[in-house]
Design brief:
Elements: H1 8-17, H2 21-27, H3 54-57, H4 74-87, H5 93-107, H6 110-122, H7 127-140, H8 145-153, H9 166-169, E1 183-184, E2 187-188, E3 192-197, E4 200-205, H10 206-210, H11 214-221, E5 231-233, H12 241-253, H13 261-273, H14 277-289, H15 294-307, H16 310-322, H17 331-339, H18 342-349, H19 353-367, H20 372-383, H21 388-404, H22 408-420, H23 427-436, H24 440-453, H25 458-465, H26 470-483, H27 489-500, H28 504-515, H29 521-533, H30 537-550, E6 555-556, E7 561-562, H31 563-571, H32 579-591, H33 595-605, H34 612-625, H35 629-641, H36 646-659, H37 663-676, H38 680-693, H39 699-712, H40 717-733, H41 737-749, H42 755-765, H43 769-782, H44 787-793, H45 799-812, H46 818-829, H47 833-844, H48 850-862, H49 866-879, H50 884-894
Parallel strand pairs: 3-5
Antiparallel strand pairs: 1-2, 3-4, 6-7
């Protein structure tokens, strides 16, 4: 959703920033061919630069105002939520988990977001909330239907968030009334009564009918004239003879038979009019069981709201929510949600109004963040907010939408409301509005005031940098990166500035800094543009192919040109590779741990008639290594679709199941594949899954046997190197160091570079620390992505060299947490408690990591800061509620709480 909210101040300037008409011609397929000589110098009149200036190519848009909840101290908020969850009544828990979900969303923690949603679903106290959170989880898992199919093929039900049995969630109205025959004026009333409807009479048992409701009892047994009549005319009560016959039958049996829907609706209205609660409940349930399509739900929801039928309303709601996001493209559905008043919402969604409209707003924003329906849902979200935390989220999100729609006064009011409710991040929106209105100084002062009043965060300096120039801007962006290295805008701005100054080497080094640990599409696109201006088309084609691997529909240059079109243009200036060339290139890049380069080669190979299943599988391995799990899963699915045989397909199915946490089922697929054909990949999968899942030490011999079987099968050196590496790891765990060393050496002979790490471990276990250090140095020299190698080498040297290596790790990949923990532990050993805690806090500010929080909690406990320790324990348990050591520390600290 981040891309949906560009900053308003930059949006207007962007339209003029990228103006060369040549790029409009690209869209129409009319751009003249680029120069064929990729080595031509920049002065060539036919060079690429003649079509697009450096300035327009490397324009960096300002960072968007994100429509997320971003508290200044997320640890404090998570701790508060955890404490409230321990103390609150059950009916409040789901909304607290929803708030926790919003905190994790602001941090970009997808797995933790889903876990919070799952907890909200599990703790839902009403059927309506259960429907909402089940639908939300299903929406978050879009595209994962194939996993359910695979689990079904293994005989395991995967419908965790499938349709709820609505009827079972509502208690049956079992109250019945019995009335004795009453004498009026000494005359005993007749046992039967006839109801006349038009020309037909329906004979009913007086007492059976009177038991349907108090009004009928009063009519037939009380002081009304009908109590003495044997014939009563009901022709003006909107009930047909057929309907009355069904009511008569119900009065005798207590159940409705096979009644057509139109008659059920008629009986429902009649039951409501005469307060026949049991009859109404029966109609409600019967109609609810008939809702099977969106059309049914639209029609019947109107009756449900009109007649106060909660079972039917819930059944219709479930159909709508199961059909997200598609149902929001149906105006009839949108109108129902938009115009429901308080009473109708109570019928439709019970106590779940906020959670429902939170979900609807989310889906609508993803469809179109500026649409009227998105605005309406967010307006309702603000209306249904019950506390400050809900209010600040809703107001901020609606403020973002108003800013997008250039409704500046309304946006200002909403951002101010969110700020008043405690959402400091909304000041970024207010600053943008001041800037749009020509008050740049006010924008700068607003951000400076925030920076001076709270513990500053990276985004604050990033935002302030937008309102200053030259050295001040640079200083703010450096500070932003120091406080939060996950922010991509500072790297992109610095790189673009350096490129404009013709310092291309420094520009590439700067953008490579962030791409070394965060594969962001906008950063890849910027580097692609750098390569275009340098006429380095080989590197440019590499980046655009990596982009297309991650996002096949990606559009570049402010969304004006499809990445695939740019690739077509650039490819004309790159030498075509044969199949053999591609395999050699892949082998070289894989061996040098150049994951982006490897992705690009595989993308190119997929255009040929190569075995696509194998290539998509390799692609998925690279994407997992690059921490792109969604793209990796998409590649695995494609591998399955393009498998050349049944046994190959079973292997890919096994990996899909394994990667989604279904290890047993993954093992089963591997075994099925082996029964058909003994293949490298089937044995490798079985060995990998077994080694990872079994706690039994004796299974090591089985894993060794499976990997040996794999190595006997036909495969290429890339995969055999991985198998040898894994086999070496098993031997190390079994203390068979010589066998392990042989495996690693053989892996290195076929250029499996990562085997240096395993061999280093063998040296270390043989008390050859210098040999281990030297082995890791070889890996560092060979690997293009080597932050993990520096981290591992730090274990094999003295303290000073360790500190140096870990400083390098933090420069290369600031998201790796071990260096912060190590430095903090060293400081603690030196009795520098404040500095130790500060070192951990630096990383915690931008990364919600259990181990960092655990260590800081322990430090707080050591220094006697019970409240600080308790806060970190609670926040850590929000990240992992079942972490045993954390639970023990929490219980210990909690017992000391004043």
């Amino acid at each position: 959703m981040r891309t949906f909210f560009p900053s308003e101040s930059c949006k207007e300037s962007q339209l003029n920033a990228l103006n060369p008409q040549s790029w409009l011609q690209v869209e129409r397929g009319k751009l003249s061919k680029l120069p064929s000589n990729s080595n031509s110098n920049s002065s060539s009149s036919s060079s690429f630069r003649s079509y697009s200036s450096i300035e327009s190519l490397i324009k960096v848009p300002e960072p968007p105002i994100l429509p997320f909840y971003k508290p200044v101290d997320y640890v404090e908020v998570l701790a508060q939520i955890h404490e409230e969850l321990e103390l609150c009544p059950p009916q409040e828990q789901s909304n607290l988990y929803l708030l926790q979900f919003q905190v994790f969303r602001g941090l970009g923690e997808v797995k933790l977001m889903r876990r919070s949603l799952r907890a909200a679903w599990q703790k839902a106290n009403s059927v309506h909330e259960k429907l909402v959170f089940a639908a939300w989880l299903k929406y978050e898992k879009q595209g994962e239907d194939h996993i359910s199919d695979l689990l079904s093929s293994c005989g395991k039900c995967a419908q965790e968030f499938g349709p709820v049995d609505i009827l079972a969630q509502f208690p049956v109205d079992g109250e019945t009334s019995t009335h004795e025959t009453i004498s009026m004026g000494g005359n005993k009333m007749s046992r039967n009564v006839s109801f006349k409807i038009e020309d037909e009479k329906i004979v009913c048992d007086r007492q059976k009918i009177s038991s349907l409701s108090a009004p009928f009892d009063a009519m037939l047994n009380g002081c009304f004239s009908e109590s003495l009549s044997e014939d009563i005319d009901l022709s003006k009560n909107n009930i047909s003879a057929s309907g009355m016959k069904e009511i008569n039958e119900f009065s005798k049996t207590g159940s409705l038979g096979e009644v057509p829907p139109h008659l059920l609706l008629e009986i429902l209205a009649f039951a409501n009019k005469f307060c026949c609660e049991k009859l109404k409940d029966a109609c409600d349930r019967k109609l609810a069981s008939l809702v099977s399509s969106r059309d049914d739900a639209v029609e019947l929801m109107e009756y449900a709201l009109e007649e106060n039928c909660r079972v039917l309303a819930a059944s219709c709601l479930q159909v709508f929510l199961e059909d997200l996001p598609n149902c929001l493209n149906d105006d009839r559905v949108v109108e129902l949600f938009k115009h429901a008043d308080r009473e109708q919402r109570s019928i439709m969604v019970g106590p779940g109004s906020f959670s429902l409209y939170c979900l609807l707003s989310e889906v609508a924003m993803n469809i179109d963040p500026q649409s009227d329906k998105t605005a309406c849902f967010l307006e309702r979200l603000v209306e249904f907010s019950e506390n400050d935390r809900q209010r600040l989220l809703a107001s901020h999100q609606l403020g973002c939408l108003r800013l997008l729609r250039k409704e500046y006064d309304e946006a200002k009011r909403l951002f101010e409301e969110a700020l008043t409710a405690g959402h400091i991040y909304s000041v970024a929106g207010l600053a943008r509005l001041d800037y749009i209105k020509g008050h740049k100084v006010w924008s700068y002062e607003k951000l400076s005031s925030v920076i001076n009043s709270v513990i500053p965060l990276g985004w604050m300096y990033q935002e302030r940098s937008l309102y200053c120039e030259d050295d001040k801007k640079w200083e703010d962006l450096e500070k932003a990166s120091e406080l939060d290295p996950t922010l991509t805008y500072p790297y992109m701005y610095r790189a673009a500035t350096l490129m404009r100054k013709n310092n291309s080497q420094a520009a590439l080094a700067e953008i490579n800094r962030v791409l070394g640990f965060k594969l962001a599409l906008d950063c890849l696109e910027l580097r692609f543009c750098f390569y275009l201006t340098l006429e380095d088309y080989k590197s440019a084609i590499c980046d655009v192919q990596a982009i297309l691997t991650l996002c096949p529909d990606y559009r570049m240059l402010e969304g004006r040109v499809a990445a695939s079109q740019l690739r077509t243009l650039v490819r004309e200036h790159v030498e075509n590779w044969t199949t053999a060339d591609c395999w050699l290139q892949l082998y070289d890049r894989w061996s040098s741990v150049d994951d982006i380069g490897s992705l690009s080669v595989i993308y190119q190979m997929l255009e040929s008639d190569e075995a696509k299943g194998v290539l998509y599988f390799r692609q998925s391995l690279l994407l997992l290594r690059l921490n792109c799990p969604e793209a990796a899963m998409r590649s695995l699915q494609l591998a399955r679709q393009h498998a050349s045989s049944e046994h190959e397909k079973l292997v890919y199915e096994g990996w899909i199941l394994y990667d989604t946490g279904h290890c047993e089922e993954g093992l089963r697929k591997a075994e099925e594949s082996i029964k058909i054909e003994r293949s490298f990949e089937a044995f490798f999968l079985k060995a990998y899954a077994l080694a990872d899942s079994s706690q039994d030490p004796s299974c090591s011999s089985t894993v060794v046997s499976l990997l040996e079987d794999a190595l006997k099968c036909r495969s290429d050196r890339l995969r055999k190197g991985q198998a040898l590496n894994n086999l070496g790891s098993v031997y190390v765990d079994c203390a068979k160091l010589e066998l392990a060393a042989d495996c690693y050496i053989n892996a290195l002979k076929i250029r499996h570079t990562r085997a240096h790490q395993g061999l280093a471990r063998v040296h270390f276990l043989k008390n050859d620390k210098a040999g281990a250090y030297e082995e890791m140095t070889k890996l560092i020299e060979k690997a293009r992505n080597n932050a993990s190698a520096y981290e591992k080498r730090s274990e094999y040297c003295d303290r000073e060299l360790t500190k140096t290596d870990l400083e390098m790790v933090t420069r290369l990949d600031p998201l790796r947490v071990y260096p912060y923990r190590y430095r903090a532990a060293v400081l603690m050993d030196s009795h520098k408690e404040k500095e130790a805690i500060a070192e951990l806090s630096k990383a915690i500010a931008f990364k919600a990591d259990l181990h960092l929080l655990h260590l800081r909690a322990a430090f707080h406990e050591h220094t006697g800061n019970v409240m600080g320790a308790l806060r970190d324990c609670r926040a850590a348990l929000s990240v992992d509620p079942n972490h045993q050591e954390m639970l023990e520390l929490h219980n210990r600290v909690n017992s000391h709480e004043p």
